[in-house]
TrEMBL record:
SUPFAM superfamilies documented for this protein: C-terminal (heme d1) domain of cytochrome cd1-nitrite reductase, Protein kinase-like (PK-like)
GO molecular function: ATP binding; protein kinase activity
InterPro entries referenced in this protein's UniProt entry, alphabetically: Haem_d1_sf, Host-pathogen_enzymatic-act, Kinase-like_dom_sf, Lactonase_7-beta_prop, Prot_kinase_dom, Protein_kinase_ATP_BS, Ser/Thr_kinase_AS, WD40/YVTN_repeat-like_dom_sf
Matches recorded under PANTHER family: DIHYDRO-HEME D1 DEHYDROGENASE, PROTEIN NIRF
Basic and acidic residues: bias regions: 239-251
Species whose genome carries this gene: Pseudonocardia sediminis
Protein name per Swiss-Prot or TrEMBL: YVTN family beta-propeller protein
Protein's UniProt keywords contain Zinc: no
Record's compositionally biased regions (Gly residues): 277-290
Length: 637
């Protein structure tokens, strides 16, 4: 096995004109897995390439906040420069496009993620200059990364470094902006051009300029190649690819916003598909009769990705997907107003969301960083990040808002947080992969659903001790997901996903601490809610695209309400007249509990958020999620 200083080089996963990328172990850091990028030995003595390589490392250092995959170190060993970065699994967009063709909505969301990364780079005074599908990484849990700043340079400023040679233009034909082809220094709008080319390719299934000739005045029309592409979206793409930089969108974010707006207009004219395919993540909600649910199992990368899935180890810039949340104060439909509000970095991967009873503080677990982030809604600022266990998911607040309980799926623990003191009050071991939780109405006990150990653990909040464990199903074949508690605290519902037979909702007698019965529902049940009188239950069936309305007295499903997509979380309205259903396929459905019907109209129709928390007055809701880069504050009917 080859070594490089303190690194064990396990496998070469990338090789380019300037460097090579290795999957490696750093023996100084307990054999931590890293992505090690090294300047090619043949270039080690060439000043221009050494400076370019060092520039790439400096770029990574400049973008070391939420948008950047951490760079552990930049240095030199035996005369060979290297960049030590965090190891990331995933597949390139180029590789994914070989096996799947995204919908227009999915294509726009991917590009919007990259736009967020580009805006962060441009704000730091840096231009990427090589935006293309091969430099965009998609991870199994929904993150998008823009990678490889090897061709980057300063915005509108000389960096003392020649990135062009006579007769040669650095970059990839088909994505290079016309002005750079002409030898004119390019700025952020050159990246906008490249991003527009990527969106064209995602929409049309082929390159906008397959022969690399970008000098034709007529910009290609993706809607001419695919009937489901709105003309308005096609116009946005063509503007982004305009030969004149001044006629393009002013920023990558502006381009992405225009694309989203064009899609939104199209969706208004088209009824929601009753069983549209969908997927995504789910986590905790907060409201009367609500549910604390975990995320559906992440889809795995295509096996055909092969070695290509490893080429992203050198990722440098993480997109804003599940990383930056935008706080809005008006209805979610006012996208222009929302876009003008300042952003707050809340979490790289928000696991759930909760709001304190006074409506002043937002609490968001960050599943990726292992923190609970506390944001002041009045000042629009994150006031603290509290380190908890690995992969925090559900968050529950007590009635005072002074205690928060967070399940840590990766650590098998429950963190008890002193919210005003911004510190951990206790850490309780509760089981294998705890991903859901709900608090007894009087605050005396908290119920924790363990996905891995197929049980519900009961914790006494006064002593912070486990007082009971309620087994559900068979270990290894059963997963516990959503939880809901009746208003009198005597009946607990738990959604059960099993590999043996039908999926169910388990009805648990809290006083006796046992499962009374299981009622068959739809496929892959996730969120669950219960009526105020405890007689009716509602179960979101992610794979079936339905909500099962369950008569808990007679242990029977009354009806399955078609929602479409992949309904994930349920929150009951305080007056009990409606249940809100989140859906990563877009929007929040409103199920009328009197008629058991859900109109096709959706609240926040363009959001893919799956985590929902009601405001204290019940008149609005906060929505976040890994598939939605914005926190929508939605007015409720």
């Amino acid at each position: 096995m080859e070594t490089f200083g303190s690194y064990r080089l396990i496998e070469q996963v990338g090789h380019g004109g300037m460097g090579e990328v290795w999957k490696a172990q750093d023996t100084r850091m307990d054999d931590r897995w890293v992505a090690l990028k090294r300047l090619l030995p043949d270039l080690a003595d060439q000043a221009e390439f050494r400076r370019r390589f060092q520039l790439e490392g400096n770029i990574a250092a400049k973008l070391s906040e939420v948008h950047v995959v951490p760079v552990h170190s930049v240095g030199e060993i035996d005369g060979q420069l290297y960049i030590d970065m965090r190891w990331i699994e995933g597949a390139t967009l180029k590789a994914r496009m070989l096996t799947a063709h995204p919908t227009p909505k999915a294509a726009v969301e991917i590009v919007a993620d990259v736009a967020g990364a580009l805006d962060a780079a441009h704000a730091a005074g840096l231009v990427h200059r090589d935006v293309k599908p091969a430099n965009i990484m998609l991870t199994p849990n929904g993150h998008t990364y823009l990678i490889d700043f090897g061709l980057g340079r300063g915005v509108n400023q000389g960096d003392g470094l020649s990135l062009t040679r006579p007769g040669h233009v650095w970059g990839t034909p088909g994505y290079i902006a016309p002005e750079r082809m002409a030898g004119v220094p390019d700025g952020p709008r050159g990246d906008v051009y490249s991003l527009a080319c990527v969106l064209f390719e995602l929409l049309a299934g082929s390159r906008a300029f397959p022969d690399g000739d970008v000098n034709d005045d007529e910009r290609p029309d993706p809607s001419a190649l695919r009937s489901d592409i709105p003309k308005a979206l096609s116009a946005v793409v063509r503007r982004g690819m305009d030969r004149d930089p001044e006629r393009r969108h002013g920023s990558a974010g502006e381009f992405a916003h225009a694309a989203r707006k064009a899609l939104k207009g199209k969706r208004r004219d088209r009824p929601t598909s009753p069983r549209a395919p969908g997927g995504g993540s789910a986590s905790a909600g907060h409201g009367p009769g609500g549910t604390k649910i975990d995320r559906p199992r992440a889809a795995t990368a295509s096996p055909r990705s092969g070695t290509a899935s490893k080429l992203f180890a050198g990722a440098l810039v993480v997109s804003l997907t599940a990383a930056v949340v935008w706080f809005t104060t008006g209805p979610s439909g006012d996208q222009d107003a929302a876009a003008q509000l300042p952003a707050i970095q809340v979490a790289r991967s928000p696991g759930s969301v909760a709001v304190t009873p006074d409506g002043r503080t937002l609490v968001v677990p960050d599943s990726e960083r292992g923190t609970v982030n506390v944001a002041d809604l009045k000042t629009r600022a994150v006031v603290d990040q509290i380190q908890v266990g690995a992969d925090p998911r559900a968050v529950v607040l007590d009635r005072s808002g002074r205690r928060a309980y967070v399940t840590n799926a990766g650590s098998g623990t429950l963190s008890v947080i002193d919210v005003p003191g911004r510190k951990i009050a206790a850490t309780i071991r509760v089981g294998d992969s705890p991903t859901s939780a709900i608090l007894q109405n009087d605050g005396s006990r908290i119920f924790v659903g363990n996905e891995g150990s197929a049980d519900v653990v009961v914790v006494d909040t006064r002593t912070n001790a486990v007082v009971d464990t309620i087994g559900i199903g068979f270990l290894w074949t059963t997963e516990v997901h959503g939880l809901a508690l009746s208003q009198d605290g005597t009946r607990l519902l738990a959604t059960v996903d099993t590999d043996l037979g039908s999926d169910t909702v388990a009805v648990i007698d809290v006083r006796e601490g046992r499962v009374q019965r299981e009622i068959e529902v739809g496929d892959e049940p996730r969120g669950v809610a219960i009526s105020a009188d405890g007689k009716q239950g509602y179960v979101a069936n992610s794979d079936s695209g339905t909500v099962s309305v369950v008569d808990l007295t007679n242990s029977a499903v009354v009806t399955d309400v078609e929602i479409g997509g992949a309904p994930t979380e349920l929150v009951r309205r305080p007056d009990g007249k409606a249940v809100y259903v989140t859906n990563p396929s877009g929007g929040v459905a409103t199920l009328d509990t009197a008629t058991n019907r859900a109109p096709s109209e959706r609240l926040a129709g363009d959001t893919t958020a799956t985590e929902m928390a009601l405001a204290p007055d019940g008149r609005s809701a906060y929505l976040v999620g890994p598939g939605s880069p914005e926190l929508n504050v939605v007015d409720l009917p």
